[in-house]
Amino acid sequence: MAEVGRRKTPAIAAHETGPGPGQYRLPPTVGFVSHDYTKLTSPAYSFHRRLNNGVYFKDSSPGPCYYVDPQLTRFGRSGGPSYSMLARSKIPAQPRTPGPGRYSPEKAPPVTQRRPPSFTMGSRTKCRRVDPVPAPNSYALPSLLGSRVPSKPSSPSVTISGRNKHGGFAEDLSQTPGPAHYNRTDPNTYLPRPPAFSIQGRHSAPRAAFRTLGPGMHSPEKVTDHRTRAPAYSLGVRHSEFVTPLITDVPQ
Hints:
- By secondary structure, the chain is low in regular secondary structure.
- Helices cover 0% and strands 2% of the residues.
């Protein structure tokens, strides 16, 4: 109940914390740059820096004859459209218009009549002067031999040095290599390699115990694996007459 009945005191501005008047920055009203758009713009002038003492000896400023158009501003020309008046042109010569007697309407065929086309031959024209345009053989294309053109593919280029008079092969012919001095390149290096075969060594002569059958030892006519076989019969052994026959039924 004591808090409800307490009397409120007014707030003191010194006790409140906040930005001061210097924290706010209004747009300037001087000049054209960042000018307050709610205010009218006044004329702006610029000041030149102080000149040195040599101003009297060296003239670095325009004289009174220098006139600045008041319509020229830093943003361009200010003003309405302007016009200029041209001088009076010369009187043209009298045109040579043909009169009525120059026409021959009687020579013209009727409009409704069909006629073939007619042609006229003009006079020979004058010879044309020799123009300075170069001929096709006047152009010289760069040679493609060697690495001279950077934008074209070139083959390997090899240079040959001059012959040395002292200590060279021309001075002593015995130092010249013969044909047998060079090694022949194997064709399998730069060509497709053909199939290669090897031959085994010769075997020793067969011994006497090893008897190989000759062609006469074979009987191809007796082979019946690939055809129908005929019936075959065999004969028994011939018995001797003196052999006692086998008697199974003995009379009583």
